[in-house]
From TrEMBL:
Organism: Ketogulonicigenium robustum
An example Gene Ontology CC term for this record: cytosol
Name of the protein: Ribosome-recycling factor
Tagged with keyword Protein biosynthesis: yes
One Gene Ontology biological process: cytoplasmic translational termination
Record function comment: Responsible for the release of ribosomes from messenger RNA at the termination of protein biosynthesis. May increase the efficiency of translation by recycling ribosomes from one round of translation to another.
Record gene name: mrrf
PANTHER family: MITOCHONDRIAL RIBOSOME RECYCLING FACTOR PSEUDO 1, RIBOSOME RECYCLING FACTOR
Source species taxonomy: Bacteria, Pseudomonadati, Pseudomonadota, Alphaproteobacteria, Rhodobacterales
Length: 187
């Protein structure tokens, strides 16, 4: 059995890609002073007895560079959506006009930009931890195969493969963070 050992590096790659994808989603929710519908993705509303994303309760539009609008489909949900946005920590004060909620995006000051870069760094660290956990999973499988009789050469080969994959994804996390921080600090 030991001779047939082959680590599923495609699965590891797919799972590490998932960590990067999750990081990009979190970064999209960070305000950079420009309006974006994706900034509302993490906002959940208690609707119909369960937590529901805002984009499933109304149409999200960006009519101007510094304005996001939500056309809420159910008039009874307008107040709940507005409250969820206020409580989300986005720092946006919604204005309601019937079933349309307008979100004017204020200019970011220097202090807020620095806070957002720290938040981005925190998101990046979570992604790095996820990648390292996947590395550990791969290494554990290799150790188990070694205990089952996998040769030292094969152990070294697979450990190198997993480490190179990990290094590649950690570097990608760092590059993504650098790009996002530059975008946040841009005036």
């Amino acid at each position: 059995m030991a001779d047939e050992f082959e680590l599923d590096t495609d699965d590891l790659t797919r799972r590490m890609d998932g960590a990067i994808s999750s990081l990009r989603t979190e970064f999209a929710s960070l305000r950079t002073g420009r309006a974006s519908g994706s900034m509302l993705e993490p906002v959940m509303v208690d609707a119909y007895g369960q937590m529901t994303p805002v984009n499933q309760l109304g149409t999200v539009n960006v009519p101007e560079p510094r304005m996001v609008t939500i056309n809420v489909w159910d008039k009874g949900m307008v107040n709940k959506v507005e409250k969820a946005i206020r409580d989300s920590g986005l720092g946006i004060n919604p204005q309601t006009n019937g079933t349309i909620i307008m979100l004017p995006i204020p200019e970011l000051n220097e202090e807020r930009r620095r806070e957002l870069t720290k938040v981005a760094a925190g998101y990046a660290e979570h992604a790095r931890v996820a990648v390292r956990n996947l590395r550990r999973d791969g290494m554990d499988k290799i150790k188990k195969a070694k205990a089952d009789g996998l040769s030292e050469d094969d152990v070294k080969f697979w450990e190198t493969e997993v480490q190179e994959l990990t290094d590649k994804f950690i570097k990608l996390v760092d590059q993504t963070l650098e790009t996002k921080q530059a975008e946040i600090m841009q005036v």
